[in-house]
Known about the structure:
Distance between the termini: 95 Å
Helix content: 55-70%
Structural class: alpha+beta
Shape: rod-shaped
Strand order of the largest sheet: 1-2-4-3
Order of helices and strands: HEEHHEHHEHH
Amino acid sequence: MDQESVELIQDQIFMVRGQQVILDSELASLYGVETGALNQAVNRNKDRFPEDFCFRLNKREWDDLKCQIGIASELAGDLKSQNVISSGHGGRRSLPRVFTEHGALMAATVLRSKQATAMSVFIIRAFVQMREALATNQAILKRLAEIDNTLLSHDSALRDLYTKILPLLEASEPKPRRKIGFHPASER
């Protein structure tokens, strides 16, 4: 796996409840197991998956996430085939579970498959790179806010200076000067 693979994994990571998470179906696919098998392993090891490692989405979060992902009708069909949404007979009967970075790593340990162990490294790298990008963006936004405040204070100072100079400029109209040189009597 290379940087391109990490970037593909990053495309499957979303923000929910202020945390970066990956859907159980996506994680199961990356780990080479069925979504049901992943969720069954989580259920058998509940003590290893506290709320900050993995949690079930509520209906509103799932609807928001579907909009964020941009689930079109053909993608919805793909998700039905992956048991992400209920298809009437079989399929998912509950809302999806999402895993944070730590939950994805813990899932690899409870699944005990070679592919899960190998893929967990790349999934963690994807989470880390996204966190670094968010931190960089936060730093840039903070610096832009500082620049904005500086510009606002400069703008205010310039406005004050202009209001103080304006009366001086209006009061000091130049007096007509006498022209130098010979002037006929009619011009005096």
